[in-house]
């Protein structure tokens, strides 16, 4: 049952507006995007630094290289953080501009694409190493 204005007549306008937004998760989502952005600021250069030397080498050399923990961990973290950042950003855009069934279907599709891409990337990395 919707609340009537008199239900909160004792609250000031500021108190009614405080909080996490209309969905109660806006601040949490915002900070998640900030954290993943900062993570990507660190991970992308590290990934380029670790991926660059092995680019164009033979399969055997790539397997040997990614058998070492540092390049494998950097690649795995880059895969996970970048796809989660994509998922959250795309979901925000969809929530802002679409309504109804289309919105729900696209959010589910974006979530599915992101998690499938994470799983495929991590599987490929593990298969390369093992």
From TrEMBL:
One of its GO terms (molecular function) is metal ion binding. It is found in: Membrane. Gene3D superfamilies: Fumarate reductase/succinate dehydrogenase, transmembrane subunit. The chain crosses the membrane at residues 30-51, 63-84, 105-129. InterPro entries: SQR/QFR_C/D, SuccDH_FuR_B_TM-su. Its cofactor is heme. The keyword Cell membrane does not apply. Membrane-anchoring subunit of succinate dehydrogenase (SDH). This is Succinate dehydrogenase/Fumarate reductase transmembrane subunit.
